[in-house]
Amino acid sequence: MHIIDKNYAQSLSHHKAGRMGFNHGNRRHAVVRFILTRLFNGGYETGARLRVEHLAEECDVSVTPVREALVELAGVGVIELRPNRGAEVREFGPKQLWEICHLRRILECEAVRGCVGHFTPSELELMEANFSRLSTADRDEAWLEETKLLDNELHTVLAERCGNERLGYEIDRYAVLYRTLRDARDNVRAARANYSEMEENDEHLAIVRAIIKNDREAAADAMGYHVNQAGYALVQDLFGRRELDQLNLDSFLAEQTPTPGLR
Question: Which residue, among 195, 106, 211, has the nearest Cα to 148 in the 3D structure?
Fold first, then answer.
């Protein structure tokens, strides 16, 4: 984990260099991201059929990773595999996006509770230092890239250290889906050079500080606030403020107050 590795800055440059094309990284995940990005950008209508051979040609891969990608997407409810019809895109709008965030909140709040006591003091010190630095740094595209990298790694290491292998597996199943959503939102904000409302580093800092204090409930509360804020931003940036206002958010998610002590 770069987030607990003092040499993570070198890995950041490798991360940037490896974000090109489908020859880098896992081909199945590359196809998953390709389909999700097109879906989130409005490239598929509900009920659209996804043809394996066509996707393999578009992604410049064999049909095997495409079939594996479709099974993975069916597993998280984005497409439906129908007998004799193949893969069809399911409805995806503000409601479906919010339901993904709701599920993420349930899973990751429980994971962060389990993480308390599973880090060394030096690991926590480095995490706190990294998020403190980013929370006050100048905001530009380089800041956004580093923020995304450390966001990925914080949530990954929390899933790994939660002490529940099944819980970690479920979080990992949704990781590509959620990160692609986040990247779509970040592309919208980067296009407008609008980073002013992106407070992920402060929110991560609150999570880490609660873990440092060995306070499971405070860590879960900070995680819940973080996931909720991300959900609000996703719906607003991808679908508009009007759609966010029209969502019928239940009390479990709607009644949130800012996490204290961030600055």
Answer: 195
What's the rounded Cα separation, in Å, for the pair 173 and 83? 24
What is the fold, at CATH topology level, of the domain defined by 17-89? Arc Repressor Mutant, subunit A (1.10.10)
d(CA 251, CA 230): 17
pLDDT at site 244: 58
Report the Cα 92 to chain-centroid distance in Å: 17
C-beta separation of 214 from 124 below 8 A: no
Helix (H, G, I), strand (E, B) or coil at 132: helix
**CATH class of the domain whose range is 93-254:** mainly alpha
* Type of residue at 225: Y
Whole-prediction pTM: 0.77
Summarize pLDDT for 69-105 with one digit per residue, the tens. Answer: 999 889 888 899 988 788 999 998 888 888 888 999 9
**SS3 label, residue 193:** coil
